């Protein structure tokens, strides 16, 4: 008989699956296939009272990938919101922020930008943040060390994933939201003998009956090779009104005469930095496909 469950932790080839009654099983997938992730709803065949085999994965509402030059990996499944954690200090890479926004747009997931350590002044960071707020992204200054309560209304009803460079305060946010749950999860992982990978694993934590948060290990690079050129254009929200109006219908928006996107950049309607990122990712992906 198959049991229905939810993947609450992914450690390479091993997954912790939570059953409806709250029990947690250590599971593997059938064969060599390792394409599951935290957030997946799965059917599991029990092989002991602590272990099982994932037989089936339910269709996903959303799927978030991270890719490098060699392969795409699923970062999380069924996420409805991506929380990008930045901080006033150390300074953050706008490149990574933009890559996260593009990944979110391409996957049809809402993106929220958190500027943590707002107790440490950094006018430059606030200016940067304002540019993304203008694009329509929810942007929230936070002092996670003092309180994470400002986050709670944003998290309600969502399955959110936290992403960000190391040192921005992701652990502080998780600990603030879930003081006891986190240590309990580590205990479960230890009894299931997956504990040694705990820090590199992706974990899903329940916040309440209809909200959860997924913690992923520090994200340093975020390849977007899995996004095709059309999806890439649409991932830039401010490009959308101009798409389809260029002189050439196969316009790459990089050098062509009669390009409406380039005209919008020239008029100051599209930030040059965002167009720059677009060109860069376009070039990376082209090398990846044809190189
Ligand atoms: N001043 C200030 N410091 C903070 C705040 N939030 C976190 N910190 C500090 O920033 C440092 C990094 O925080 P962590 O929560 O460990 O960062 P992380 O993003 O989990 O980093 P990794 O574990 O490397 O992925 C710690 O020394 C925290 O105490 C904040 O709001 N204000
Ligand atoms: Zn164009």
UniProtKB/TrEMBL annotation:
<keyword id="KW-0547">Nucleotide-binding</keyword>
<feature type="binding site">
    <location>
        <position position="259"/>
    </location>
    <ligand>
        <name>Zn(2+)</name>
    </ligand>
</feature>
<keyword id="KW-0378">Hydrolase</keyword>
<feature type="domain" description="CP-type G">
    <location>
        <begin position="67"/>
        <end position="222"/>
    </location>
</feature>
<dbReference type="InterPro" id="IPR010914">
    <property type="entry name" value="RsgA_GTPase_dom"/>
</dbReference>
<keyword id="KW-0690">Ribosome biogenesis</keyword>
<feature type="binding site">
    <location>
        <position position="253"/>
    </location>
    <ligand>
        <name>Zn(2+)</name>
    </ligand>
</feature>
<feature type="binding site">
    <location>
        <begin position="164"/>
        <end position="172"/>
    </location>
    <ligand>
        <name>GTP</name>
    </ligand>
</feature>
<dbReference type="InterPro" id="IPR012340">
    <property type="entry name" value="NA-bd_OB-fold"/>
</dbReference>
<keyword id="KW-0862">Zinc</keyword>
<dbReference type="InterPro" id="IPR004881">
    <property type="entry name" value="Ribosome_biogen_GTPase_RsgA"/>
</dbReference>
<comment type="subunit">
    <text>Monomer. Associates with 30S ribosomal subunit, binds 16S rRNA.</text>
</comment>
<keyword id="KW-0963">Cytoplasm</keyword>
<dbReference type="InterPro" id="IPR027417">
    <property type="entry name" value="P-loop_NTPase"/>
</dbReference>
<keyword id="KW-0694">RNA-binding</keyword>
<feature type="domain" description="EngC GTPase">
    <location>
        <begin position="77"/>
        <end position="220"/>
    </location>
</feature>
<dbReference type="Pfam" id="PF03193">
    <property type="entry name" value="RsgA_GTPase"/>
</dbReference>
<protein>
    <recommendedName>
        <fullName>Small ribosomal subunit biogenesis GTPase RsgA</fullName>
        <ecNumber>3.6.1.-</ecNumber>
    </recommendedName>
</protein>
<keyword id="KW-0479">Metal-binding</keyword>
<comment type="similarity">
    <text>Belongs to the TRAFAC class YlqF/YawG GTPase family. RsgA subfamily.</text>
</comment>
<feature type="binding site">
    <location>
        <begin position="116"/>
        <end position="119"/>
    </location>
    <ligand>
        <name>GTP</name>
    </ligand>
</feature>
<keyword id="KW-0342">GTP-binding</keyword>
<feature type="binding site">
    <location>
        <position position="251"/>
    </location>
    <ligand>
        <name>Zn(2+)</name>
    </ligand>
</feature>
<dbReference type="InterPro" id="IPR030378">
    <property type="entry name" value="G_CP_dom"/>
</dbReference>
<comment type="function">
    <text>One of several proteins that assist in the late maturation steps of the functional core of the 30S ribosomal subunit. Helps release RbfA from mature subunits. May play a role in the assembly of ribosomal proteins into the subunit. Circularly permuted GTPase that catalyzes slow GTP hydrolysis, GTPase activity is stimulated by the 30S ribosomal subunit.</text>
</comment>
<keyword id="KW-0699">rRNA-binding</keyword>
<feature type="binding site">
    <location>
        <position position="246"/>
    </location>
    <ligand>
        <name>Zn(2+)</name>
    </ligand>
</feature>
